[in-house]
Every structure is written in C-alpha cells, then in structure tokens.
Specification:
It is a multi-pass membrane protein. It comes from Sphingomonas aurea. InterPro entries: ABC3_permease_C (IPR003838), MacB_PCD (IPR025857), Macrolide_Exporter_MacB (IPR050250). The chain is elongated and about 105 Å long. Helix content is 56%, strand content 18%. The protein has 13 helices and 12 strands. The two termini are 29 Å apart. A 6-stranded mixed barrel has the order 2-3-10-5-7-6. A two-stranded antiparallel sheet has the order 8-9. With 401 residues, it is α+β, with helices and mostly antiparallel strands. It folds into 2 domains: 176 residues, no CATH class; 177 residues, no CATH class. Helix 9 packs antiparallel against helix 11.
Length: 401
C-alpha cells in the first residue's frame, strides 16, 4: 500500500513541476544555507587551529610591553637580554626550551629577482619549541650558530619568488647588503590568521643581531612548556621571575606580556563556533518558512482535489489511506527540497573554499541532520492538510465543484 501511495504522490508532484519547485524553494535555501554555514564554519575553525598549531603546542610568547604594541604613550619598555633567556630556561620548572628571536626586514635578492621579506634570528632551541621540518637541505650547526655565520633557511614563499622551483640549497643570495648562504628550505605552513607564515628567512640570532639589528636586544621569547605542567603555572612563574629581573615592585604594572597559544586557540575556536551556530540558526529560519509554504500548497491541493478525495472515499478507501497519501506527498516534497539543498550546498562550498583559503571537508553528520530535519518539516507541516483531507465527508466532497 505504501508503494502505491508513494507513486501517487510522485505523480501529483510531477503534474505541477513548477509549483512543486516553488513550494520547496524555502527548504532548498534553508538546507543549503545551514549546511554551507556549518561546514565553512568548521573549516574556518580547523584553519585557525592549524595556524595556531604552527606556532607550537604548549608555547608561551613573551614580549616587552603590555600588548603587541607599546601600550599607552609612555617610553618603550626595555627589550629582553640573553641573561633573561638563560634565567627562564634554568630557573623555571616545566620549561623545555627557550627560543629568543630578533627580527628585521630586508629585500632578498637572487639572480635578478627580489622579494621583501622578514628575517627572524633565533637559536636551535626554536626547533624544539616550534618544530619546522625541512623540505630540502639541513639546519645550521652549533658551531655556525656560535660564530653567527650568515647561513639561512628560507620559507616556501621566498623560495618560490626567488628560485622559482629551482635548486636553492647551496646558493648564495643577498639580504639587503649582506650575503647569505642558503642551507635549507622549510616546509610549507601556508596562510593563516597570522599572515603568510612561509614569507620568512630564518638565521642564527647572532648573525641577525650583528648584521641587521645592531644590538643584542631580544624582542620575543618562545617558551616551550612540558606537557606534564600547566601553562598557567609556568606563566605565573615566568611573570614573577621577570618582575624581579626588571625590578618591577609593588603594584606597578608589568612592562611585558605573556601569551598562551593554547588559550588563544581555545578563544578563537569558541568564538568561531558560536558565530557559526548563530548564522546557522538564522539560516534555519528558511526551513520554517519552507515548511509553511508546503502547508499552504498542500491546503490548496486538498481544495483542488476534493472530488478526487470524495471518489476514493466513496469506493472504499479509508480515512487513514487518504491521510497517508497527502502526508507522503508533503514529505516527498520536503525530502526533494532537502536533496537539492544538499547538492546546492556542496557546489557553494566548493566555490567558496578557495576564496576563503580554508580546507574542504565533507561532514556527513550535518548533511544527514539537515536532510532529516527537512523530512521532519514535511511531516509536521504536512499533517494538518492531510488530516483535513482525511476528515472530508464523501457526500460533501462529491458535490464539490
């Protein structure tokens, strides 16, 4: 019986294709919008997490100042010294390594090609705190680091713009007026919330201090924290130590700041998740509108087919069969809208992923949930018209003009 009812429902839909399509348009838009927003929201969250993971897990970033800038209109807080790095590494429990960084910018030049980039000077502790595999070449040796030799590792962006896919390892390029031997090419990290992470040249910190910054000051320390320790506990210990070393007493504010990458990741993830839910909830309103459209058209259909319903009841059909026929028709319309909405969502996602520079993912859970909701809407909003059709009096229905 159900098979026959389904065939009748599909025939009725096919007889009025345009009206059926306009009826399910709200469902199509609703399902498509919900799936698109949730999928892109999750993709954005994954991209943010990957970008922050590239900074290292369980890593504290220590900078002078009360924020990323100076903070306020006072004098610039003093930079850190090498002794500060050694004190944190030796006196704070739970610290695996401390990587100081000195940064500058210069134009990299090779064989007539040039590219403006950032130069980061650091130590081999950087590879412990923030592991970065090589695509080719090698890391510098302890002897090269101690001597401040002008050797460098280049990011993929620098490599592509200067060497254009050729062999870079063993070549010599210029950074401003300084010659530098390329000993390695870093693997790609890609774009993220922190800009192009591959647009960088990494050198021994002494080479950068001597040849670019002209001082031994350190503007950033990356502190690796053992997994067995709480980053908050280590952060508090570093704060106490630096306040003591920088002679900050009483109720004076810190002239340095410490950022926990895990806290940043958790905050950004929760924010993007909340925004995704809000946008998806707004998009879900289209599903309700689509359900109202289905109910409206089904009521019109009941009115148009009153004589047909009267004939079916007169020749022996029971009210339950009439109710099932119209209910199946409403659910079929809604499910058809759900399928079209899912297909539309995938097309939109494929178009937007390259523009947003986020990874493409297929989430079967949200697709199944969206389709199930569309089917439920067909049942909920189709029941009233179906009940009305089943409650018709056969004699009154046959008299209907």
């Amino acid at each position: 019986m159900f098979g026959t009812t389904l065939v009748l429902a599909l025939r009725s839909i096919r007889r009025h294709l345009l009206r059926s399509f306009l009826t399910i348009l709200g469902i199509v838009i609703g399902v498509g919008a919900v799936v698109t927003m949730v999928t892109l929201g999750k993709a954005t969250t994954s991209a943010v997490q990957a970008s922050i993971s590239a900074l290292g897990t369980n890593v504290l970033q220590v900078r002078p100042g009360q924020g990323f800038g100076r903070g306020g209109g006072g004098p610039r807080p003093p930079d850190f010294k090498e002794a500060d790095v050694e004190a944190i590494a030796n006196q704070i429990a739970g610290v695996t390594a401390v990587a100081p960084q000195a940064s500058s910018s210069a134009t990299a030049i090779y064989n007539g090609a040039n590219w403006s980039t950032t130069i980061n000077g650091t130590t081999d502790a950087f590879l412990i705190v923030q592991p970065w595999p090589l695509a080719a070449g090698r890391y510098w040796t302890p002897a090269e680091e101690a001597a401040g030799k002008a050797v460098c590792l280049i990011g993929n962006t620098v490599y592509q713009n200067l060497f254009r896919g050729g062999d870079a390892v063993g070549q010599r390029m210029r950074l401003g007026n300084i010659s530098c031997d390329v000993i390695g090419v870093l693997t790609t990290r890609g774009q993220g919330g922190f800009g192009d992470q591959d647009d960088v040249v990494v050198m021994p910190i002494k080479a950068v201090q001597r040849r670019f910054t002209g001082s031994q000051d350190i503007r950033l320390m990356l502190v690796g924290v053992d997994q067995a320790y709480s980053t908050q506990t280590v952060q508090a210990s570093i704060t106490d130590l630096l306040r003591q070393r920088r002679t900050i007493t009483g109720g004076k504010d810190d002239d340095f700041n410490i950022f926990d990458t895990k806290q940043i990741s958790d905050t950004l993830t929760s924010t993007t998740t909340m925004l995704t839910r809000i946008v998806a909830a707004v998009a879900a309103i289209s599903l309700v509108v689509g359900g109202i459209g289905i109910m409206n058209i089904m009521l019109v259909s009941v009115t148009e087919r009153t004589r047909e319903i009267g004939i079916r009841l007169a020749i022996g059909a029971v009210a339950r069969e009439v109710l099932l026929q119209f209910l199946v028709e409403a659910v079929a319309l809604s499910c058809l809208g759900g399928v079209i909405g899912l297909a539309l969502a995938q097309l939109v996602i494929l178009a937007l992923v390259p523009l947003m520079q986020v990874p493409w993912t297929f989430d079967p859970q949200i697709n199944l949930i969206a389709f199930a909701i569309s089917a439920v809407i067909g049942v909920v909003f189709g029941y009233f018209p179906a009940r009305r059709a089943a409650a018709l009096n056969p004699i009154d229905a046959l008299r209907h003009e």
